[in-house]
């Protein structure tokens, strides 16, 4: 294993965490904005503030576990699924690319989420009990 791989994976994890942190904080600090996003992109209108506080709290637990690198299959997998759904839910924005350039940043982040999931056993700079990757 290249000695730089764990550092590269840690940097990817930190980058993905930062984006998810602000999406999480949006639910906790500006639930009315989160409600607009959920209505526009997921078709979930009418969720109240309490729902966003609960979603935000659950998401905060998830992203902190992700940041710590624990329960990697579950946390990295959940992050990949959630970001995949988020990326695909904005499909209409990709049809007019030059009006929505910022939405294209979702794709490299989705690739980072996939890379982290696929290489999770090599992501050893974590609080996980697995200290070294399994070798065949």
Write the SSE topology:
Layout: H1 5-29, H2 31-42, H3 49-68, H4 72-89, H5 91-95, H6 106-118
Helix pairs in contact: 1-2, 1-3, 1-6, 3-4, 4-6
Kindly summarize this structure in a few lines.
This protein is mostly helical and 136 residues long. Helices cover 68% and strands 0% of the residues.
Protein architecture, described:
The protein is an all-alpha fold and 136 residues long. It has one domain. Helix 1 packs across helix 2. The longest helix has 25 residues. The protein is globular. The two termini are 12 Å apart.
Features of this protein?
136 residues; mainly alpha; 68% helix
Strand content: under 5%
What does the overall shape look like?
Answer: globular
The structural domain count equals 1
The assigned structural class equals: mainly alpha
H/E topology pattern: HHHHHH
Low-confidence stretches: none
The counted number of beta strands is 0
């Amino acid at each position: 294993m290249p000695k730089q791989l764990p550092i590269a994976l840690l940097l990817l994890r930190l980058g993905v965490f930062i984006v998810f942190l602000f999406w999480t904080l949006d639910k906790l600090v500006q639930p009315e904005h989160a409600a607009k996003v959920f209505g526009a992109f997921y078709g979930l209108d009418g969720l109240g503030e309490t729902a966003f506080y609960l979603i935000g709290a659950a998401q905060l637990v998830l992203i902190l576990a992700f940041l710590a690198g624990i329960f990697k299959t579950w946390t990295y997998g959940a992050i990949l699924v959630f970001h995949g759904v988020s990326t695909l839910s904005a499909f209409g924005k990709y049809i007019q690319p030059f009006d929505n350039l910022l939405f294209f940043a979702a794709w490299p982040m989705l690739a980072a989420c996939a890379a982290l999931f696929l290489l999770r056993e090599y992501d050893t700079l974590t609080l996980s009990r697995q200290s070294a990757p399994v070798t065949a």
